[in-house]
Design goal:
The complex is a heterotrimer of chains A (about 300), B (about 425) and C (about 280). Chain B is an alpha/beta fold and about 425 residues long. Helix content of chain B is about 45%, strand content about 15%. In chain B, β1, α2 and β2 form a beta-alpha-beta unit. In chain B, α9 packs across α17 and α17 runs antiparallel to α18. In chain C, α7 packs antiparallel against α10. Classes of the chains: A mainly alpha (about 300), B alpha/beta (about 425), C mainly alpha (about 280).
């Protein structure tokens, strides 16, 4: 790499760094700072308490409950989204008439604002008037309406289904784009060699898609772990905190009980968990990818 | 590629130019004209009618312009907005509309102004005692009650008449009546009693009504919070029984809020409904399936105790950082005046906080059942009046919800709630 | 040897159909809700409206300056996408093809910024926005949206750029191209799908972003669609009809834009790549 490259490199990356530093750095540092304080604006309390909030958090059963919900939600959602996204990308890889329309259709759930999606699904899940129960009963699958959002078991799964519906397009788009950059010659060569579709998929498609799969996994996990709007509108965290994720809990602590310090601690904790998971991803899947990326 | 890029840039540039050129209605530099910004949640009815009201205020008060800005209807989003703005010392709005449970905490935070001079003792007498109690913090008045809400029992007059029942006075009767009618009608789509059991603030309102009507309270005589009482256990157990043991309430109440239950009753699919007064207007309008079939009564109670309704409603306050407090006060006085409260009751259906209006001829002529509401509003009870209330609520909601879905017994839930309550209060700065 | 397989074709069609129904179903239901009069909203059956009405759509535009709101969303989302693509592609170019230290740290920090829950940053951000006098302006949203969409853009584009062989760059340089020319003439066209994907994702993120839009906008001067929709319901009343209509209105432009984008990207790709 020539020296000129290095300076050029710094130059080209500087706008991005500038933007990020200017707008994201202060709020994040402020939030971290708040997490070390006992801050109750209503009572005019602003005191530095070091790691006291973190100690409290470790012993807070509601935090552990929300963490459990979040992990479950994230794991199931992301797994489903990745598989479905991959499937759709495979389905739409070869051109056929109407493919453009299918691609647009896939995109629709992602395009709808989250609050609208949540209301839409809330209405679909409605026990008395919802389409889902109506169809299930009409086709004889169930004998009485399912309490989708009010049952401790079903609530989180209803939320998962809604999230999968909404965010599979993200995975599908990226993987579709990725598949398009795989040179056709590779496929042709493999077929000439007599490889079957599964072998092609496993040995050519998947490895080529690995970097993108990593991006999908990373960003989807980030998003799923921090899910807030969708669940808050759909269930409010209930019933009995069975759908309360970390972000929902943090929101309530921040803006309902007005404990800015502890709320920020929860946010930092969320960040820490996500960072931890990302490191695991990178370790397991992307060691050479990472090396290739940052050389 | 370049062509697309250029074309897009052109389109955007045009849009920016067109949109950017439209001037927001700012009153700039006109000497002597004060702009008062009024922040509130969405007001029912058509936006035109409320605007016409504000126009009237502007005509009666030359030199003052009112800019009203709506916030999303979700009370949580309004609360979040106020918290962020007021904590950031924003002077961007002058008058704000607050839920009855926020006044204490906003007052404690010092975010709203002292309005005691707007409500001297004789004025205070004109209002219902519940809201007045909710807007007084440490002896000072911080907001003026604007309109009032309280929990009511709606029932299907036609069905009760058909089976020769009077509206129930005790909960047990409600169960008996429901069961009889359900059996008699044999309609698989008919429910007995729907109420709000979702994990949210409305759940607290519902639970408190049962606790109070069992003669209990969440505050004991010394003003200390006491959740783990026998009456509370009775109340919670009864609510769970409504769903499971008596089969009178459908499972879905555990996820139902005001609108969900209102729709069920409004479609004619429920015999009894617990809800706020707003629902009446919707049941009574053209095209409603239950028009003319709806009766309203105070909520039942447990034997030997009186009916109890949770107090709701909205109050008007002034932002501490407002630059036009005097003009803001003028707006508040206008909006809470008897004439305007009557207008709101007639046009929008918001119930007045002034007692005298419940004998007003025009109002009675248009809404005759309002006399029945008077008693309910007079005895409506506020949720614990304390700056800590929202903390309590966030802690109690999941516990109560756990009982309703069968995850915890009433005893366990109340014990856990009490423990957490003590923990919250042990960190009290004043203690 | 051709496996002319009607079974395979049927299977393919079945999968296509199921996928379409899964993704489109709820939206079609939403559309039907938007044209049902209020009285039919809660009646099931009938699934299909018997008296379709445009009343909800009228209400959407009557009760709020919805055209203005859509315009705001369009400007904010487009500019955010533009900024992200420009800044992001330059940065990704550097990360993918230049040699300098700290790449890992940069990508890591960018990722870390994405990881931070927005609800914790909204309060301090509000203070900044107010201090800069940007309340109720497009810039407040464009700045914050760009910031929080930039990490994803960087990661996606870096991944795409990395896949393009370094020899092409070296060859171009030997032909006398400056780095920026190489960037413009070689890198960008070859990673068109990646750019397209990033553009779509950023646009939609900005179009649908709610928390910052709610906090930084006060009036219809800068209000965006998600906030506009949140303003529909009365205190207790949720007008499902109006919400459904508004969501149809809000989604349509995005779909059209995406259709436009998709086709152009594919065209550009097939035009340039045929030579193999």
């Amino acid at each position: 790499m020539r020296p000129a490259d290095r300076y050029l490199g710094y130059l080209l990356i500087s706008p991005a760094l500038l933007v990020l530093a200017a707008i994201a750095l202060f709020p994040i540092l402020a939030a971290v700072g708040l997490s070390l304080q006992r801050r109750l604006p209503i009572f005019h309390i602003a005191a530095f308490v070091g790691l006291e909030n973190y100690r409290f958090l470790m012993a807070d059963p509601r935090f552990w409950n929300s963490l459990g919900n979040t992990v479950y939600f994230t794991a199931v959602s992301v797994a489903l989204e990745l598989m479905l996204g991959l499937g759709i990308a495979l389905l739409l890889d070869r051109p056929f008439s109407g493919r453009g329309w299918m691609r647009a259709i896939i995109l629709i759930p992602w395009a709808i604002p989250t609050v609208v999606t949540a209301r839409m699904w809330e209405w679909l899940y409605n026990v008395e008037f919802g389409l889902l129960n109506h169809l299930l009963m009409a086709t004889g699958f169930v004998t009485e309406s399912v309490n989708w959002l009010g049952s401790p078991f079903w609530a989180i799964h209803s939320a998962i289904l809604m999230d999968v519906w909404k965010t599979t397009p993200f995975a599908a788009i990226l993987l579709m784009a990725g598949m398009q950059t795989i040179p056709r010659e590779l496929y042709l060569a493999a077929r000439v060699d007599g490889a079957g579709p599964w072998a092609i998929f496993w040995h050519i498609t998947l490895p080529s898609l690995k970097p993108l799969i990593l991006v999908v996994l990373l960003f989807r996990t980030l998003d799923a772990f921090r899910v807030f709007d969708a669940i808050y509108v759909l269930t409010g965290g209930g019933p009995a905190n069975t759908t309360e994720t970390i972000s929902v809990y943090a929101y309530k602590v921040l803006f309902q009980t007005l404990q800015f310090g502890y709320g920020s601690t929860l946010a930092v904790m969320t960040f820490a968990c996500v960072a931890f998971i990302s490191l695991i991803y990178l370790k397991l899947l992307g060691r050479d990818y990472w090396r290739r990326l940052v050389q | 590629m370049i062509q697309i890029f250029n074309k897009t840039l052109l389109v955007l540039g045009a849009a920016w130019f067109l949109l950017g050129c439209s001037t927001p209605d700012e009153v700039k530099g006109k000497a002597g004209v004060v702009k008062v910004v009024f922040k509130h949640g969405k007001i029912a009815g058509s936006p035109g009618s409320f605007r016409s009201l504000l126009k009237r205020f502007e005509e009666e008060n030359p030199g003052i312009i009112v800019k009203d800005e709506t916030l999303p209807s979700s009370t949580d989003q309004q609360h979040q907005f106020y918290v962020i703005s007021l904590e950031g010392r924003s002077a961007e709005f002058d008058v704000l509309s607050m839920d009855v449970i926020w006044v204490q905490e906003f007052a404690r935070a010092g975010w709203i102004r002292d309005l005691s001079h707007l409500l001297p003792p004789e004025e205070r007498e004109q209002f219902f005692p519940g809201p007045i109690g909710a807007v007084i913090f440490e002896g000072t008045i911080y907001a003026v009650p604007w309109y009032i809400d309280a929990g009511l029992l709606y029932y299907r007059k036609d069905l009760l008449d058909k089976y020769n029942f009077d509206p129930p006075r005790i909960w047990e009767d409600l169960v008996v009546i429901s069961k009889t009618i359900l059996k008699g009608e044999g309609d698989p789509n008919l429910r007995g009693f729907v109420w709000q059991g979702k994990q949210y603030e409305g759940l607290i309102c519902n639970v408190l009504e049962y606790i109070w009507s069992a003669g209990g309270d969440v505050l004991n005589k010394d003003g200390k919070v006491n959740l783990d009482s026998d009456q509370a256990q009775v109340a919670l157990a009864f609510m769970r029984d409504l769903i499971v043991r008596y089969g009178v309430s459908p499972q879905m109440v555990t996820t139902a809020d005001e609108e969900a239950t209102r729709r069920i009753f409004g479609e004619g699919r429920a015999i009894f409904l617990r809800n706020w007064p707003y629902a009446w207007n919707l049941f009574d309008r053209e095209g409603s399936k239950v028009r003319g079939k709806v009766g309203v009564a105070p909520l039942p109670s447990f034997p030997g105790f009186s009916s109890a309704a949770t107090l709701g409603g909205w109050q008007l306050g002034i932002n501490r950082y407002s630059r036009h407090p005097k003009e803001a006060e003028a707006l508040i006085q206008f909006l809470t005046s008897p004439e305007i409260q009557r207008w709101m009751a007639l046009e929008i259906g918001y119930k007045p906080t002034r007692k005298a209006l419940y004998q007003d001829e025009r109002l009675l002529a248009a809404q005759p059942f309002i006399t029945g509401l008077y008693g309910v509003f007079l005895s409506a009870r506020p949720r614990p009046v304390s700056p800590y209330y929202l903390m309590f609520s966030q802690m109690m909601q999941p516990e109560f919800s756990a009982v309703l879905v069968g995850l915890k017994s009433p005893e366990k839930a109340l014990q856990d709630a009490q423990l957490q309550m003590d923990h919250i209060l042990s960190g009290r700065p004043e203690a | 040897m051709k496996r002319a397989d009607p079974l395979k074709k049927a299977g393919f069609l079945f999968l296509l159909l199921s996928t379409a129904i899964f993704f489109l179903g709820p939206v079609v239901w939403q559309f039907m809700t938007s044209i049902k009069p209020d009285t039919e909203l809660t009646a099931l059956p009938p699934i299909f409206p018997t008296n379709p009405t445009l009343g909800h759509y009228v209400a959407v535009f009557r009760d709020q300056p919805f055209f203005r709101i859509m315009g705001n969303s369009l400007i904010v989302a487009s500019m955010t996408t533009l900024f992200c693509l420009v800044i992001g592609s330059l940065g990704a170019f550097a990360l993918a093809w230049m040699g300098f230290r700290g790449k890992g740290a940069i990508l890591g920090i960018a990722l870390a910024i994405s990881m931070f829950p927005p609800i914790a940053t909204v309060s301090p951000l509000y203070l900044i926005i107010r201090a800069l006098g940007l309340r109720d302006t497009w810039w407040a949203l464009m700045a914050t949206h760009t910031t929080f969409a930039l990490p994803l853009t960087l990661w996606i584009l870096t991944s795409f750029f990395r896949e393009i062989p370094g020899e092409l760059y070296k060859a171009a340089q030997m032909d006398g191209c400056s780095p920026l020319q190489a960037f413009y003439r070689i890198l960008l066209p070859l990673s068109a799908p990646g750019l397209g994907a990033a553009a779509i994702l950023v646009f939609i993120f900005s179009w649908n972003e709610f928390l910052f839009a709610l906090t930084f906008t006060t009036t219809e001067v800068s209000r965006t669609i998600p906030v506009g929709i949140a303003l529909f319901p009365g205190l207790h009343e949720i007008p499902y009809g109006e919400i459904a209509a508004a969501s149809m209105i809000a989604t349509l432009p995005v779909i059209l834009l995406v259709l436009f984008f998709q086709r152009r990207i594919v065209e550009g790709l097939t035009a340039g790549a045929v030579k193999g």
